[in-house]
Amino acid sequence: MGEPTVMERAAEYPRPPLLLPCDRHVRVEIFGEVLADTRRSLRVLETFHPPTYYLPPEAMNLDMLVPAPGRSHCEWKGVARYFDVVAPDGRSLERALWQYPHPSPSYQALTGWFSLYPGRMEGCWVDGERVTAQPGSFYGGWITADVEGPFKGDPRHPELI
Questions:
Q1: Which end of the chain is more exposed for a tag (fewer CB within 10 A), N or C?
Q2: What is the pTM assigned to this prediction?
Q3: If DSSP codes are grouped into helix, strand and coil, which group holds residue 160?
Q4: Reduced to 3 states, what is the DSSP secondary structure of residue 42?
Q5: Of the options 2.170.150.40, 2.60.120.40, 2.30.40.10, 3.30.43.10, the CATH number for the domain spanning 19-154
Q6: CA dihedral 65, 116, 36, 99 (to 10 degrees)
Q7: CA-CA distance, 161 to 159, in Å (whole number)?
Q8: Which residues 6+ apart lie within 8 Å of 57 measured at CB?
Q9: Tens digit of pLDDT for each residue in 72-112?
């Protein structure tokens, strides 16, 4: 069910991106709090990107999310809106998550689900393995031991930037 069983090569992921259900255990922590914990996610697989995980609203600590200004546009998924993360003690992290409220027809399954920048969190884990963030501040890919680069955003591969 979307769970990798062998090494995946990001160079072999498709364009346009593929959307796959995933039942791997995903956990996200920020400000000493659990932001998300689920075994139900969606992975977006796009050429030269590590997977981007989208998490269902019911897996999220929605009390920590505040709508943020600004939008962005993905040629495949449509218009994204952003959210700040706010801790119970008032600490905040601007525009750390996003979602597609009305994605394009091919990506309707993403409607209302959340994705985030793993490099901005205290920690993200997939099946207990700590995730490495995709290089570059623009990207939200999750690198695990079963995904092989090179990855877009890595300065060692300027041809992919």
A1: N
A2: 0.93
A3: helix
A4: strand
A5: 2.170.150.40
A6: 60
A7: 6
A8: 112, 113, 114
A9: 999 999 999 999 999 999 999 999 999 999 999 999 999 99
